Amino acid sequence: MLRVEDIHTYYGDSYVLRGVSLEVPQGSVIALLGRNGVGKTTLVRSIIGFTQPRESKGIFFKDVDITQKPTYDIVEMGMGIVPQGRRVFPSLSVEENLTLGASKGAEGGKWNLERIYELFPVLAKRSNHRGNKLSGGEQQMLAVARALMTNPQLLLMDEPTEGLAPLLVRAVGDIISHLKEEGLSILLVEQNLSFALKMADHVHVMSKGQIVHSSSPQELTEREDIKSRYLGV
Ligand SMILES: Nc1ncnc2c1ncn2[C@@H]1O[C@H](COP(=O)(O)OP(=O)(O)O)[C@@H](O)[C@H]1O
Ligand SMILES: [Mg+2]
Description:
Bound molecules: adenosine-5'-diphosphate, magnesium ion
CATH architecture: 3-Layer(aba) Sandwich
Number of domains: 1
CATH class: Alpha Beta
């Protein structure tokens, strides 16, 4: 579904991603872990075209090189994003947030308001509330729901559990499991190790703009050296 090959991304003179490669196979959840500031969000930004890599061997989405494409083309092709910090529109209602970027997607699209409200009853109840009146957990649900309204085949989720209480972390986990069962491919950026280990088929650990460990979740669970060195566990 997604293949990132040796990307190098800068902010001005600041060299952030130093040769990152990874794949998200169709229907899988791939987790990217790492401490604050190592470049996780920069990778998400590079993939979806907010910050284009200065050098790369290509970013292939459904076998098309999207490296030079603008974000709206990439979204149109079927990539969705749940940005870090949620970024819902504070002065728009829940329903307006959902319909604003809605699209039928690359494959006709099964997500519409009705199905979204089925999966997120809390949003149905609050459909007329403004974004800034929602709790953190509700805003996170809205951010996920809004991304689904573009009918993506690949979803980039940047720290979806950040700042959420345990019960809500579980709710986000249930949503991810459900989406995976429906065949969605997901790149899950996380700082919550146990959550990522539970959700992912494969995990990568990033440090200083490079991937320093890749394995099954089971293997990472046992790698105390990697966890203490790169994840502060
Ligand atoms: N817009 C920006 N301009 C300049 N530097 C940035 C910008 N965004 C992030 N950085 C820097 O790039 C590095 C990686 O940041 P980021 O990708 O946000 O890391 P993470 O998501 O892993 O916490 C950090 O050193 C950060 O300060
Ligand atoms: Mg980040």
